[in-house]
Write a structure and sequence with these properties.
Number of strands: 0
Order of helices and strands: HHHHHH
Number of helices: 6
Distance between the termini: 38 Å
Radius of gyration: 17 Å
Strand content: under 5%
Largest sheet: none
Length: 159
Amino acid sequence: TLTRAIASGTKAIIQFWSTDYIRNALKVNDSKKIVLTFSTVSITGPFGAIFFSSFISKFFGDYESKNANNIAIKLQFINCIIGLFIPFMTNLYSYCLILLIFFILNATILSFFNGLIIKSVQPKFKATALSLSSLALMLFIDTPFPFIYGCVNDYFSPK
């Protein structure tokens, strides 16, 4: 659950700051263009993950295979390396492309973690385990992070 929370938190941070980054770092001032490109990336990322995770499952095994932990760790490592390139993108389209790849890998990894949770508990506790994992994500990631982002933004934004 902790690894799943870190992956979800990282995605949430990037989603929160992306439009600000596009406007200030990439110097894109067209609000419609920002909303359209970022919305496209945010919507197609999870759909791309469905296809990518299906591909990974078909060729390398799904969460029930012996390699599930290794696959999830390798995908997370690749995603971390891709994430390192995000701040170095110099135009909107290269930024959106690498962000899309990041979101696809992130959602694929999250599906593997859900599968590992299902695999690691007894059958009668599977629903409870996923529910508790989701509750922990909501309580410790989704609920406090917008407040924390806002505080950080208020602290570092020019007065």
